[in-house]
Request: fold
Amino acid sequence: MNSEDAAEQRRKAAILSGVQDQLESPDTPEVRLHYQRLLSLGRSDSEARELIATLLAFYIWHTKRGDDYTYSDYVAELERLPEIDWREDDDVDA
Reply:
């Protein structure tokens, strides 16, 4: 494994650890609710966690950029899982 692959694996592990923290925290019950909903829709544990992790990464990215993107926005995105059109924010002409 090269250093780039190792760094990617560390980032993925960190985000998945963040998802685990949210699933266990009394401060983020919405994450646990949507995780359970994804499981009830037939998603596997790893699929549900990876979907949530993707949104968590977006949330962190927006926060780091200083965007007006709140926890409520993050929860609104969780509500749309698993049916998010990832291209929605792309250029409409693309």
In short: The helical segments are 3-24, 29-40, 45-65, 71-80. The mean pLDDT is 90.
